[in-house]
Amino acid sequence: IFHSNIKVTKMSYDEADNLLAENADLSALKTAAEKHQKYRDQQGAISLNLPNVEVKFKDDLVTISKQNSSPSRDLIAEMMVLAGRVIAQFSQQNEIVMPYAIQDAGDFPAETLEAKNQLTLAQAFKAMKYFKRSATSVKPLLHYGLGLSAYLRITSPLRRYFDLLAHQQLSNFILGKPTLEREKVKQIIGITNTSMADIGKTVRSSNDHYKCLFLLQNPQWQGAGVVVDLRGDKALFMLPELGMMTQIKFKNLPDLDAEILLKISSVDLPQRLANFQPA
């Protein structure tokens, strides 16, 4: 692990997908990523792969695009996990104090673990409650969801402070400069964690606001809703195209995982709420 300069070639995911098979370097990375994914699966890694969307606001218009899986996206995701595992191992070997990402083992039913790679949307939604909350610690402990004995978030120092802190510790070690001691890193973790809940709430509120604004700008929107839970006489829907949830009352409840075409019934922008009904 060393300091270096890199040359960036910017390309789209579609362009990268087309290059994976013909570019020797990318092909080698893809092979390594697949092996690492298999290793983590054998160690008990579990990922629910729930729908995710990107919300953008430009020229007074909101766009929402679903993040679809692709070979290049999967490659990048696994390489980020691999980088975090490698730096965690390097930090332990060299006694560098780091803000490790940790997660205790979840209490998943056996049937969920047996079918973890083929869960339906309703099953994945139900499985969320079995995950233990992730945390940050100076101790290199288990990250259950990733199937790793130790893990560091290291790949996004421009947008996550703990990643930046890890980079600073790593860089100072490489240069032979003093690194922060255990108690100082623990103090930083504590200070940062006190604001994380507010930051998360702010991000969710912002996304909810712009999703509602998107619906106001597109009042004729219709899209699929998938039943992920039944609560009394109401069905809870997940809307994959919007990354939203809604409850609808039925006389005859649909089955779990039933897909129903929904349309907008009302939008309350100040409250960041949207209601839907069958189309």
Number of strands: 9
Shape verdict: globular
Percentage of residues in helical conformation: 40-55%
User: Which band does the percent of strand residues land in?
Assistant: 15-25%
What is the mean pLDDT? Answer: 94
Rg estimate, integer Å: 22 Å
Cα end-to-end separation: 56 Å
Detail the poorly predicted runs. none
**Subunit organisation of the chains:** single chain
Largest sheet: 5 strands, antiparallel
Structural class: alpha+beta
**What is the ordering of alpha helices and beta strands?**
HHEEHEHHEHHEEEEE
Structure in words:
This protein has 279 residues and is an alpha+beta fold. 41% of the residues lie in helices and 20% in strands. A hairpin with a 4-residue loop joins strand 6 and strand 7. Helix 2 packs across helix 3. The radius of gyration is 22 Å and the shape is globular. 20% of the residues are buried. The model has no long low-confidence stretch (mean pLDDT 94).
Secondary structure layout plus pairing:
Layout: H1 13-20, H2 24-42, E1 53-58, E2 61-66, H3 71-93, E3 100-102, H4 110-114, H5 121-127, E4 135-137, H6 161-175, H7 182-217, E5 222-231, E6 234-239, E7 244-249, E8 259-268, E9 273-278
Antiparallel strand pairs: 1-2, 3-4, 5-6, 5-8, 6-7, 8-9
In short:
With 279 residues, the chain is α+β, with helices and mostly antiparallel strands. Helices cover 41% and strands 20% of the residues.
Quickly list its features.
279 residues; alpha+beta; 5-stranded antiparallel sheet; two-stranded antiparallel ribbon; 7 helices; globular
